[in-house]
UniProtKB/TrEMBL annotation:
Occurrences of domain Aminotransferase class V (ranges): 9-368
Keywords carried by this UniProt record: Coiled coil, Iron, Iron-sulfur, Metal-binding, Pyridoxal phosphate, Transferase
The organism of origin for this protein: Flavobacterium frigidarium
InterPro entries assigned: Aminotrans_V_dom (IPR000192), Aminotrans_V_PyrdxlP_BS (IPR020578), Cysteine_dSase (IPR016454), PyrdxlP-dep_Trfase (IPR015424), PyrdxlP-dep_Trfase_major (IPR015421), PyrdxlP-dep_Trfase_small (IPR015422)
Name the record gives this protein: cysteine desulfurase
Length: 386
């Protein structure tokens, strides 16, 4: 099924995904009849609590963790704030040094920046031109004051996958804790939290065909973590995320997790096959760079730059597909992507870089259509500048 809005093909699935029909179906009864508060001590409340527990089981099943190891939040951003700020406030007597990477999502960089203002020292690891950190640099950066290292599993702009197994060994050998943003990886690659042995992780329903406004913070039970609450209210979600649970969204999240697990292999194969066709066609174009092409990447993500072309003009010509420039925009300015500039690309190249992100719903005709639009757009601009 082509996902279209006014005949525009949707290829921005790392920004958000369409909600799976089966997810919507599972949520509808919760709005209509099972609308009780999961905290209420009567039949409506018990029923709400029961469906929340089923969702917890399903998410735990997808990620191979216990249902009691995560709490529900409004998304990955909120989960990251609760996890990073809560952990650092609870453990600051041990040290006030944090390590993260220049290419992390703003959901991680901004809470880290807030801690810097409160007197924490931050080391920002550099990356190479593929977005990969240097493990030796990480090892050297960890001191006896380092309480937390925050490194994402898969990058939202390039799809690059970090070697979290090796990172985990380094971080734990040095006695620090590992926070990992797994938002883009869940549902696109196998994520086994038991094997990964991360301390804290965050993820979000709307990146995996679930509803918006629902995410989770995972806390590894084996590593006995201490977190201070940054919110105050009722005691929901271990007191760390107080407030009435968003039961319909949580149920949708659980359904999305169920199908993500059941269909993971098929979805990966399908997205990889389409990505291969897209990349083979892109490589026929002169001046194209596919970022992190030879690295381990998410099966759905292609981020390409076109050299010697005005990114703004190209964006206006890519008017038949919804893709992302990986840049923060406001009314007057367009910022080059902090990920691509950290990888050493110039502002111009970053602004002429486009992320195409597929989903399980992307079809081969969507990709053919996208290839036509991209080729026509680039060739016409190249002809004008020749
Ligand atoms: N982390 C990554 C890697 C993301 O791609 C996103 C979403 O753009 C987030 C965190 C934030 O997720 P949410 O929209 O659930 O707050």
């Amino acid at each position: 099924m082509a996902i279209t809005n006014q005949n525009i093909i949707y290829l921005d699935n790392n920004a958000s995904t369409a909600v799976d029909d089966r997810v919507i179906e599972s949520m509808l009864p919760i709005f209509k009849s099972n609308f009780g508060n999961a905290g209420s001590d009567h039949a409506f409340g018990w029923e709400a609590n029961e469906v929340v527990d089923i969702a917890r089981e399903r998410i735990g099943d997808l990620l191979n963790c216990k249902p009691s190891e995560f709490l529900f939040t409004s998304g990955a951003t909120e989960a990251a704030n609760i996890g990073i700020l809560g952990f650092c406030k609870a453990n600051k007597a041990k040290g006030k040094h944090l390590i993260t990477v220049r290419t992390e999502h703003k959901a991680i960089l901004e809470p880290v920046k807030a801690l810097e203002k409160e007197g924490f020292t931050i080391t920002y690891l550099n990356v190479d031109d593929c977005g990969m950190i240097d493990l030796q640099e990480l090892d050297t950066a960890i001191t006896d004051q380092t309480i937390l290292v925050a490194i994402m599993l898969a990058n939202n702009e390039t799809g690059l996958i970090h070697p979290i197994d090796a990172i985990e060994r380094i971080v734990h050998d040095k006695g620090s804790a590992l926070f990992c943003d797994i938002t883009q990886a869940v549902g696109k690659i196998k994520v086994d939290l038991d094997i990964l042995n991360i301390d804290l992780a965050v993820f979000s329903a709307h990146k995996m065909h679930g509803p918006k406004g629902c995410g989770a913070l995972y806390m590894n039970r084996k590593n006995k973590l201490k977190l201070n609450s940054i919110f105050y209210g009722g005691g929901q979600e271990k007191g760390l995320r107080p407030g009435t649970l968003n039961v319909p969204a949580i149920v949708g999240f659980g359904t999305a997790a169920y199908f993500a697990k059941a269909e993971l292999k098929d979805n990966i194969d399908k997205m990889l096959a389409l990505r291969k066709i897209l990349e083979a066609n892109l490589e026929e174009i002169e001046g194209i760079i596919i970022h992190a092409k030879n690295n381990k990447r998410l099966p759905n993500t292609v981020n390409f730059a076109v050299l010697n072309i005005d990114g703004g003009k190209l964006l206006r010509r890519l008017n038949k597909i919804a893709v992302s420039r990986g840049s923060a925009c406001n009314a007057n300015t367009v910022e080059p992507s902090h990920v691509l500039t950290a990888m050493g690309f110039s502002n111009d190249t970053a602004l002429a870089s486009f992320r195409v992100s597929l989903s399980k719903e992307t079809t081969s005709s969507d990709i053919e259509f996208a290839i036509l639009n991209i080729k026509e757009a680039i060739y016409s601009l190249q002809k004008m500048t020749a």
